[in-house]
Design a protein that fits this description.
single chain, about 400 residues, alpha+beta, 5-stranded antiparallel sheet, 5-stranded mixed sheet, 12 helices, elongated
C-alpha cells in the first residue's frame, strides 16, 4: 500500500505544481461559488482537467490520443498553444499558430536526442501571430524519449518552463502505464498461445481417427462429430479478445466432451450442474477447458473401468464457483505443488499451471486454483470467478477467428 501511495504522490504532485501555474493565470479575488479560495478552485480545475486528459494517454502516444488530450493539456498550462510530437512529426496541435509546426520539428532534434528540455525563440513573420517563444519538454518512458510536449506563448516565462516540465513528467507517467498495459496484454497473448500449443496432439489425432471410423459405418454420425471438432478448434484458436463468457467456455467444453465420448463410449459419464445466472460471467479465455481435459486424462485414460466427471457452476454471491471433479488416478500432492510452482513440467502438457497463473494475474493471488487430490483418490479442482472485475470484459459471443 505504501508503494501505491508513493506512486500516487509522484503522479499528483506535478499536477499540483501545474495547478499553481494555472491558479496564477485564473485566480480572482472574489468567492468562487462554494469551491473555496482561488487556489482551491484552481487545484480542483487542475485535477479535473487531468482526469479528462489521462484516459486517451493510457492508450499510448498516437495521433488520435494526442489529439484527444492536447486541449486538456493546454488548459492545464493556460498557454496560447500546445503540441504533442513523436520522434518524427507533430501529432496534434491545439491553439493558435499551427504554421509553426515545421519550425518546431526542426528545433526538436536536440531535445529528442538528449532528453533535456529547452526554450527557444520562434521566428515568425505573420503580423497577427502572437507566439514568440516555445518551451520543449521531452516525453520519456524507461529513459527512452518517445516525443515531446511543446508549449508556445507570446513571451518567455520561467514559470511556464517549469510547469511544462511537470506536465510532461505527468504525461510520461501515463505513457509508462500504457506501456505496462501493453506488456501485460502481450504476456497474456503469449500465455494463450502457449496454452493452445499444449492442446494435446494426441487428442486431435484420436478425434480425427474416431471421425474416420464412422465415415463408412455411420456417415451422419461422422458429419456431426466433424462439426463438433470444427467448432471446438474454431473456439480454441480464435483471435478476438482475452476474455470470454462462462457460457461460451462451457459450450466449447461440450464440443470437446462430445469428441471424447465418441472415442470412449459408455466408459465415460459426465454430469453438469450449471446455474443459469452465472452464464454471463466473464473469465479468461481457455480457462476451464484445460481443467476438463486434465480430468479426462487422469480420470479415464489408462483406466479399464468406467469413469465419471462432474462439472458444476454455482452462484456464490459476488462470485461464480466452478468445480471440476473426476474419480480417476489422482496425483501426488507434492508433485502437483511442484507443477504449479513451475519446478517440473506436467506430463501431457495439460496446462494447470498456465490456468492458475492467469487466474492470479487477472484476479489476484486469492483466486488461484484450489486442487484437492491424492494418489488413487481422483482430483477436485475449484475455480472462483468474480462476477465483476475492472478490465475483465468478454468479447462478443462465439467470435470467429
Amino acid at each position: 500500500m505504501s508503494g501505491f501511495l508513493a506512486g500516487l504522490c509522484v503522479a499528483v504532485l506535478p499536477l499540483l505544481a501545474a495547478g499553481f501555474w494555472l491558479g496564477r493565470r485564473t485566480a480572482r479575488h472574489e468567492s468562487l461559488g462554494g469551491l473555496g479560495t482561488p487556489v482551491e478552485h484552481a487545484t480542483f480545475q487542475t485535477l479535473h482537467t487531468a482526469s479528462l486528459a489521462a484516459p486517451p494517454l493510457r492508450a499510448g502516444l498516437t495521433g488520435e490520443t494526442a489529439r484527444r488530450s492536447a486541449r486538456r493539456l493546454r488548459t492545464l498550462l493556460g498557454t496560447d498553444a500546445l503540441c504533442l510530437t513523436d520522434q518524427k512529426q507533430v501529432l496534434a496541435w491545439d491553439g493558435i499558430g499551427d504554421h509553426h509546426r515545421a519550425e518546431i520539428m526542426e528545433r526538436l532534434a536536440g531535445p529528442l536526442e538528449t532528453g533535456r528540455g529547452e526554450a527557444f525563440r520562434l521566428t515568425c513573420y505573420a503580423p497577427d501571430c502572437l507566439l514568440r517563444w516555445a518551451v520543449v519538454a521531452p516525453l520519456t518512458v524507461d529513459d527512452r524519449v518517445h516525443g515531446a510536449l511543446v508549449a508556445c506563448a507570446p513571451r518567455e516565462s520561467a514559470v511556464l518552463v517549469r510547469a511544462a516540465g511537470e506536465v510532461a513528467r505527468w504525461v510520461s507517467v501515463q505513457l509508462e502505464l500504457a506501456d505496462l498495459d501493453q506488456s501485460r496484454t502481450r504476456l497474456i497473448e503469449a500465455e494463450i498461445k502457449a496454452l493452445r500449443a499444449q492442446i494435446s496432439p494426441h487428442f486431435i489425432f484420436n478425434s480425427l481417427a474416431v471421425i474416420a471410423s464412422f465415415v463408412r459405418t455411420d456417415p451422419e454420425r461422422a458429419r456431426e462429430l466433424l462439426l463438433e471438432f470444427a467448432d471446438f478448434t474454431r473456439y480454441s484458436f480464435r483471435r478476438h479478445g482475452d476474455f470470454t463468457t462462462l457460457a461460451d467456455e462451457l459450450h466449447a467444453i461440450d464440443h470437446y466432451l462430445a469428441l471424447v465420448r465418441a472415442r470412449f463410449g459408455e466408459r465415460l459419464s459426465v454430469t453438469l450442474q450449471i446455474a443459469p445466472e452465472v452464464l454471463p460471467v466473464a473469465l479468461p479465455f481457455l480457462c476451464l477447458q484445460p481443467l476438463v481435459e486434465n480430468a479426462v486424462k487422469h480420470g479415464l485414460e489408462g483406466k479399464a473401468d468406467k469413469s465419471h466427471i462432474s462439472i458444476t457452476a454455482q452462484d456464490a454471491g459476488a462470485e461464480a464457483l466452478v468445480v471440476i471433479e473426476d474419480d480417476g488416478a489422482g496425483m501426488d500432492p507434492d508433485l502437483l505443488r511442484r507443477i504449479l510452482a513451475g519446478e517440473v513440467s506436467p506430463s501431457g502438457g495439460i496446462g494447470l499451471s498456465n490456468v492458475d497463473d492467469r487466474l492470479r494475474q487477472v484476479y489476484g493471488d486469492d483466486y488461484g486454483l484450489v486442487i484437492e487430490t491424492a494418489v488413487g483418490a481422483g482430483m477436485k479442482i475449484t475455480a472462483r470467478l468474480p462476477k465483476y472485475q475492472p478490465g475483465v470484459h468478454s468479447a462478443s459471443r462465439r467470435s470467429e477467428p
